[in-house]
Design a protein that fits this description.
The structure holds two protein chains of two kinds. By secondary structure, chain A is mainly beta. Chain A has one helix at residues 2-15, and strands at 27-32, 40-46, 49-55, 61-65, 76-78, 83-86, 91-93, 99-101, 110-116, 119-123. In chain A, a hairpin with a 5-residue loop joins β3 (49-55) and β4 (61-65). Chain B is mainly α. The chains are: A mainly beta, B mainly alpha.
């Protein structure tokens, strides 16, 4: 029995890859000022995961994690609905990131947005 | 010529004992009744599986399983390699037809009650083979590294990750990390061309051995008619009568595959981008549509369970019941057909068809 375990254990450990360290960066330049029109959105890279920057109809910015809390698809901003939509299973979030319809179980993670010179900078708060 | 052939057979018989195979083929028969059409589906599925193996080997000559090269290598096969479009399209069409015929084969076996004693293990090995085929479909779908496949894989693997306890381990095992990346592509390639073919070969050998050992089942209605003297027991030799009929079907299937590949070459789509939004109209292959549509209807929470896990639990329980049908349907052991199990089969088909149609709307 012990020898069987000693054969299987290394193989079981081998098939699980070593953990990859998350990007230590807490902020990222998501866009340039003026890049986004009012009432539009853009996916940006935040570490190894996608984020969503939305420019509202009044010109202000909001940023969220673009990873749907249902099954990990990447969400998008729907200018016709003025909501955030996941195409995979028709989940909807409002512009506060709250899950308002469809299967998503939790709100989207919200990021802070600052304008620094010509850059729209998104910062992870948690 | 005939003498040379006979001499070669004798030579082989002395070394391999092929005479027993010849003897076996001479005595193997297939029951003849109005249900005989359904008996061709297993052979048809096997034929399409062989097509998959052959075209898969040809695709391997050019395919490169890395995120930078996978899409481009399939594009190269489709546009530059002579008849590459044909080989890849036949592989894709044949995969879909194979799963379709496997489903038909399973339901025909179910409704003809061919799972009853002593063929319980034939049924179980067949269902496991169908799961392996679905695994082939799921892993192969990702290999061209296009947008649809990328998100379908994200969703599929995330579902596995929702299982309490082992979910996280399973997700990392399947993806080769926390996210769907090049590591996932490499793993799926390994599953598709090494792990699954190995398992499929083993299960296929068991399944075919059981079919040969136990023979083909006679439906209860025909057995009853024979017992009541309303008909006589009829059969035909497997070799060459049934096999020749099988081969006519395979020849037609080959023609259909060529026609489908030429008229509707399999699309490649756009290259996967991990930092693009999931496109509208995203959906998995047709055989996963009923599960995909079910997930859309499930609320975020069902009692104390996450919606997707509750869905997975129900599908898992349904699959377990389906596998264990030969042991649950006890009356069929005495030749009595239970309406409950016939109704269950009709419900399952209805559910799959209706939910898949809703997903295609």
């Amino acid at each position: 029995m012990a020898s069987i375990v000693s054969f299987i254990y290394p193989a079981m450990r081998y098939i699980i890859p070593p953990p990859v360290a998350e990007s230590p960066s807490r902020f990222v330049v998501a866009a340039k000022v003026g890049e986004l029109k009012n009432n539009s959105g853009k996916i940006f890279k935040f570490g190894s995961r996608p984020g969503l920057l939305v420019r509202l109809a009044d010109g202000s910015y909001r940023a969220f994690s673009a990873v749907c809390t249902h099954l990990n698809c990447t969400v998008q901003y729907r200018s016709d609905l003025r909501e955030i939509w996941c195409a995979c299973h028709n989940g909807l979030y409002d512009l506060e990131g709250r899950n308002v319809s469809g299967p998503p179980p939790r709100p989207l993670e919200i990021f802070e947005v600052h304008i620094q010179g010509e850059d729209v900078v998104v910062t992870r708060t948690a | 010529m005939a003498t040379l052939f006979r001499k070669t057979l004798n030579w082989l018989d002395e070394r391999f004992g092929t005479g027993s195979v010849e003897e076996f083929l001479r005595h193997k028969t297939v029951p003849v009744s109005r249900h005989i059409i359904w008996y061709y589906l297993g052979g048809m599925t096997l034929f399409l599986f062989i097509i998959q193996v052959l075209t898969g080997i040809l695709l391997l000559l050019y395919y490169r399983p890395t995120p930078n090269d996978a899409f481009e290598s399939v594009q190269y096969i489709m546009t530059q390699v002579r008849f590459g479009w044909l080989i890849r399209s036949v592989h894709s069409w044949s995969a879909n037809l194979m799963i379709f015929t496997a489903f038909l084969h399973m339901f025909s076996v179910y409704f003809l009650k061919a799972y009853r004693k002593p063929r319980e293990l034939t049924w179980i090995s067949g269902i496991l083979l169908l799961f392996i085929l679905l695994g082939f479909g799921f892993s192969g779908y990702l290999l061209p590294w296009n947008t649809l496949a990328f998100f379908a894989t994200k969703v599929g693997t995330e579902m596995a990750g929702s299982i309490p306890g082992i979910g996280k381990w399973l997700l990392v095992f399947l993806r080769g990390g926390d996210e769907v990346t090049g590591a996932t592509l490499t793993r799926f390639f390994g599953f598709h061309v090494a792990v699954l073919p190995g398992l499929a070969t083993l299960l296929l050998a068991i399944h075919l051995f059981l079919v040969q050992r136990l023979g083909m089942s006679v439906p209860p209605s025909v057995e009853r008619a024979i017992a009541e003297g309303r008909t006589t027991e009829r059969s035909m030799p497997f070799f060459p009568n049934f096999l020749l009929r099988d081969m006519i079907g395979w020849y037609a299937a080959l023609g259909a595959l060529g026609g489908l590949a030429a008229i509707f070459p399999w699309e490649l789509g756009t290259k996967a981008d991990a930092f693009a939004a999931a496109p509208a109209g995203i959906r998995p292959e047709w055989y996963f549509l009923f599960m995909f549509q079910t997930l859309k209807y499930l609320p975020a929470k069902i009692l104390f369970l996450e919606g997707e896990f509750a869905g997975l639990l129900v599908f898992g329980a349904a699959a377990a019941v389906w596998i264990l049908v030969p042991f649950l349907d006890r009356r069929i052991g005495f030749g009595r057909v239970t309406r409950l199990f016939t109704g269950l089969g009709i419900f399952v088909i209805g559910y799959i068809v209706v939910l898949s149609a809703l997903a295609l709307r």
